Amino acid sequence: MTSLKDPATARLRPLPNLIFMSRWLQLPLYLGLILAQCVYVFHFWVELVHLIEAAFGDQTALQAIYSAVGTGDAPVGGKLTETTIMLVVLGLIDVVMISNLLIMVIVGGYETFVSRMNLEGHPDQPEWLSHVNASVLKVKLATAIIGISSIHLLKTFINAGALTDRVLIAQTVIHIAFLFSALAIAMTDRLLTPAYRGAH
């Protein structure tokens, strides 16, 4: 006669229950990332307001923009140049991409490691969330980091005149390292996934 273990009885075991419940210790970390997201939203709007004000000739906003993009002091009575606008817009895109990365970590990490959100059927459910797991999350994070690094590298090349060759070479090498890391993660995931499925 086969005896089936009652799930309710299994939940009464204190040590496994304590270990499993410890996953909720990650909740404050995800709440902290939500607060970091709020900081990024505030920073985005501050930079956007500075850009709009500088476009209308506000010298204080123009100086703030020149300081933010690292091109030194704004010329007296100067105006926004196309290069400066491009650097500011790339900075805003950078903030959006980092914000997207935060959402991916918050939603995907919570769903994978803490608790199900039961978003099935919700019209706003992210497409990738339906098949997310730890390895998929790693690959998506790696590709998001490459995107962010690409924006940084583009900003560096646009502003190359204000930077040294050492900085240009270092950022290019770092970006290539990110590319190879993402490729290695993706290949490892591709190699391990069939083995994992075969084991089941």
Word description of this protein:
With 200 residues, the chain is mostly helical. The chain has one domain. The chain is 72% helix and 0% strand. The chain contains 7 helices and no strands. α3 crosses α4, α4 (59-69) packs across α5 (82-113) and α5 runs antiparallel to α6. It is globular. It starts with 6 loop residues before the first helix and ends with a helix.
Structural class: mainly alpha
Overall pLDDT level: 81
Globular, elongated, flat, extended or rod-shaped: what is the shape?
globular
**Backbone CA Rg:** 23 Å
| Through-space gap between termini | 26 Å
- Order of helices and strands, N to C? HHHHHHH
Total strands: 0
The total of helices stands at 7
- Assembly form of the protein: single chain
The number of domains is 1
The amount of helix comes to over 70%
Report the uncertain regions. 195-200
Name some characteristics of this structure:
mainly alpha; single chain; 72% helix; 200 residues
How would you summarize the topology of this molecule?
Elements: H1 7-11, H2 14-21, H3 27-55, H4 59-69, H5 82-113, H6 134-158, H7 165-199
Helix pairs in contact: 3-4, 3-5, 4-5, 5-6, 6-7
Briefly characterize the structure.
By secondary structure, the protein is an all-alpha fold. The chain is 72% helix and 0% strand. The protein has one domain (27-118, 125-193).
